[in-house]
Amino acid sequence: MWIKLLSIFLKRLIRQGSLVVVYPDGRSIQYGDGSTPSATMRFHARSLPRKLLINPELTLGEAYMDGTLTVDQDDLYGLVELLVINLKRQSDAWHLRWQANLRQLHRRLAQFNPAGRAQRNVAHHYDLSGTLYDLFLDPDRQYSCAYFREPGDTLETAQRNKKSLIARKLLLAPEQRVLDIGCGWGGLGLHLARDHGARVTGITLSQEQHRIAEERARAEGLGDQARFRLQDYRDISGTFDRIVSVGMFEHVGVPHYKEFFATLRDRLKDDGVALLHTIGRADGPGSTNPWITKYIFPGGYSPALSEILAVVEQSGLYVTDVEVWRLHYAETLKEWRNRFEASLDRVRSIYDERFCRMWRFYLVASEVAFRHDGLVVFQIQLAKKQDAVPLTRDYLASRDRLGEPATRDGEKITDHPAWNAN
């Protein structure tokens, strides 16, 4: 019965491309119009058709992780792309819509992230082996969307582009105090200190990230210029000239948006500038994929712009600039996926085959979501005063592809401690 019901569903769903399913009883059925994209998946458990019908978004990833679902030529990308393209084209997958609506009703509970729970959620993902991240990230360990200014940009170049653009949007001046909320392994904070003369305080809830960020600051001689704390954003005191947050807002949770922007307002000086860089949805409010919630980012959510701005409007902050990055993260994830797959033997030596499949599914599904399923990146510039930033965007133009060093009165700061670190 379950095979028959799943077959009916797939016939309605797959209208573009070709999907071949080999069922546990040996039957092989093709769905779609025979065009591309195409993929063949094989079921190795009799319970799989039932589980896929009841909860497809969770079951697909779990079955691939467990090996009860395999893809010919291990073309996982082709399979996920085929499914997502057809899901976006169909409006009659009523039970999928019902499940999504149900998740949205419960999302405030799922995203309730007080400090203790927030730290546990962060540890789940970011306190993994540091060697794992070294295998697919750039040497600066930038674990957020890169900025590909030219088609031939490498991942390393694109990540430098991002850091440079962020610095320009912050309108940094030497000796300004900068708060970096969600500082990761310290790469952005060290860039702002070393190349722009800022005095950076970076905060993270990840013990591993905190340890490495501090080690990097000491190794570069920037210990007095860039300081990193194991601290929740709600516990920060004092005021700052600039505040930046990259790739952290996705972990805040809708119930805490007012708290987050109140923190930005209270910690930002009256003439200060803040920049929020976050994954977002181009198609309105939604809910987090259940597989992502369970295995990758518990408590996480990527908001629609309308959800962010509705809270900002009540916070006492001005939105001074909004930029939408569309396919930049798809290209970033493609680079990460290629590097990860090239290092699978190393990953297996750290974890196991199931972990490799889990991480591969995460990178593939994320890339496809940015290419075909409405995920983008928002960069939102905020201030307390309308004239805290120039009235045109001309200041964002850079004479140098990777940005200019910090200057004072038109002169490069060659005698600044950050420039003598090495």
UniProtKB/TrEMBL annotation:
* Keywords for the protein's UniProt record, in alphabetical order: Lipid metabolism, Methyltransferase, S-adenosyl-L-methionine, Transferase
| DUF7884 domain residues | 17-73
Q: Which Pfam families match?
A: CMAS (PF02353), DUF7884 (PF25371)
Indicate whether S-adenosyl-L-methionine appears among the record's keywords.
Answer: yes
Asked if the record carries the keyword Amino-acid biosynthesis, the reply is no
Q: Matching PANTHER family, A to Z?
A: CYCLOPROPANE-FATTY-ACYL-PHOSPHOLIPID SYNTHASE (PTHR43667)
Similarity comment text for this entry:
Belongs to the CFA/CMAS family.
> Can you name this protein?
Cyclopropane-fatty-acyl-phospholipid synthase family protein
- Specify the species: Marinobacter metalliresistant
